[in-house]
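B., you asked whether I could sanity-check this one before it goes into the benchmark set. Here's the sequence:
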Amino acid sequence: MLVMGEVHTGLLQNSGEISEPACRQVLGLMTGETVRVSRRPIVHALSPDRLTGVDCVLPAASGSRIRGVGTVVSRCAVTGGRVAQGSSYVRLARSETDRRLPWSHYLARPGVIEVLGKARAADIAEGFVGEGAPRLHGCLDLTAVTGRFLDLVQTSPLLNRRAPFRMPRTILRWVAETGEPSIAFTLHTEQERTLRLTHPGPFTPAVVDLCEDLAVHDWLLTSLLVVVERARVGATPAAEVAARLSPAVDHLLHLWMPAARVEERLTPFWESLERRPGFSRQWRSLVDRVRDQLAVHTLALLSANAETGGR
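And here's what the prediction gave me:
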């Protein structure tokens, strides 16, 4: 069994953190459906699932034309009133027929794409997350599906679109298969990452939760690294450095809570990533650097004020 998905993560387009009621309104994109909100250990709001019907070519490393018909499940989330995510996924299943059935058949199986004809799961997985895999015309495009849904949230009239700093979205493309537990996270570009996950037992939405949690913390780490680089510590006056670092304190540092929303049976995957590449180790190092710079700047101001007052 193969499951494929994408998670897009970015800064919510608002000048400040939005409240829980505002989260419900921003994510209330489907009339009559409920936005789910959890308050501990951090406020997390999740939109209702949205289905997109597809009749497309599936990605394949071999370049084979593999047809799939079914529906993509998409959802959006806001974490801490500050970070927005769009997420889509599909489960692949072999069709019992070689022809397309009425849409009512596929709508009864949300999030499942039925594969028409012969196909190997490994070929599709490599085509989806592998570098340099061919992309045929009409290929399944989760990037477009996910991006459009997230755009609906980011352009909500409830947001003032005055973000405190500019930061590009990151895209995590992931595949999950059944087998002996393993996880491999790879950075490809400044914005693109892939995740290969193998786990025992059947697929559940908890796997999607894990991928979304990983994606939000990867974005936080990437964003803090960019903020520190933009501050040009050592090459810029201390006051300017402090001004460039302060948005990180206001909007990012309090959001770091890896695996807080991950099912206990899946936490070993997070623990593996904490050992290598070591997300929290790098995060703590950056946080210490930010706080040290702000402390040095504060001490310099206090010293200058003391000297002025003593004259």
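One thing to flag: The chain has two domains: 2-194, 221-310. Otherwise nothing jumped out at me.
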